[in-house]
Amino acid sequence: MKIIKLFLFLTVLASLASCNLDLANPNAATEADVLTTKDGLLALAKGVEHRYATSTLPAAILTPGISGREIAAMTTFSSLEELEDGGAQLASENERVTRLFARTMRTKGMAETLLDNMDNVSMNAGTKSALRAHATLFRSMCLGILAYNWEKVPAKNSKNNDAQFVDREAALRDAIAQMSSALTALEAEPASDEFNKTLSGIDLNDALNLYIARFNLIVGDYDGAIDAAKKVNLAAAPSYFYYDAQNPNGIFTTMFEGTIEYAPIVNFGLPTTLTPDAGDQRVGFYLASVTKSGIHFDVDSIVAPFFNAADAGIPVYYPSEATLILAEAYANKDDFDTAETYLNEVRKKAAADDVLGIGAGLLTDFTANNDKQKLLNEIYKNRRIELFLSGLGLEDSRRLGRPTPPATVDYSAERNRNFYPYPADERLNNPNTPANPTL
Prior knowledge:
Blueprint: H1 2-14, H2 31-35, H3 38-67, E1 71-73, H4 78-85, H5 95-117, H6 125-149, E2 152-154, E3 165-167, H7 168-188, H8 193-198, H9 204-219, H10 222-229, E4 240-241, H11 250-256, E5 262-264, H12 282-286, E6 287-293, E7 298-302, E8 314-315, H13 320-332, H14 336-348, H15 372-386, H16 393-399, H17 424-429
């Protein structure tokens, strides 16, 4: 059985070059093998997770990391220079933007294929609820990546190249509804041993609650964000995406191997008015000071255990994000005392008290003295440091009111785009592609 599952898994991965699961090899598993059998669907779910971890996630971290000034380009590749310039100079043909869109859409389509076919296959109730939760989580994570970076999002992939785009808020609200439904089903029918033997690396309950909280925060449903964030177990064993020599950590390979393409900007790219506090232990957790420069920025070296080796695991989510979501949600409800309480939990947290080992260890409380913008600025700073290289920097910069990007190239700008243009390939093939944003 393990051999069959592995064969199906590799077959699914080999088929990714096409828009469907049609296979040319007559000796390989057919679409029916994959989509109409329990083992095939479990293999596809593993393929979704593998594809997301090795292909989608690195692009989702690195591309907006350049635009949001978390990381700097270290080579003169035209695609990176154009991305670092940003503004109107960023063309629809940009390879990095196209790669982010295409890889995210590919993984999203795989998850949707799984969701579309699983009700036709007989399986244990706990296997089905967990499989649905897993596929829903990955579809939602992909919708999130698209919504962090584009104004409008293809709601459902189409093999006919006519996917309909919806406003990003509508896409996130759809994801919230789907995740909430999947979570309710999973709570009623917990994951079976059969599922856990195949896919056990992610705490689905906590991951779904974290993403429900995150998306509610982005769309402005602060009560929904608070409710979901409080359900995240901060002490639970962390969930990781795992890598090995054959499937290496994509952040490591671009920052340490061969041609070095990226490096973290000094002080997380924060402006001088928001630099890390003296003694903030998260600086040394993530960064090592070095004497080198990128094309336009002074940079440090990454030392975080999530990114410093080919087999380093990347967290599926940072549990402390739930605490920062609570701080921001209460701040936006004008409950400043509660917001500061949660913010100071993060600022004063010791590394030993965090399941990922992230701790600022600051000794004093922050108070904004009822200055809402000052409070939001401090929340932004702590999100930038605590959640470094989580793919959220550009979204956070927009949502938390940081300065808008200039129309012309300005390397001192905190971000150089609001949203990305749609890839030229998508516009060529899909007549429903929206107009590009100015910035």
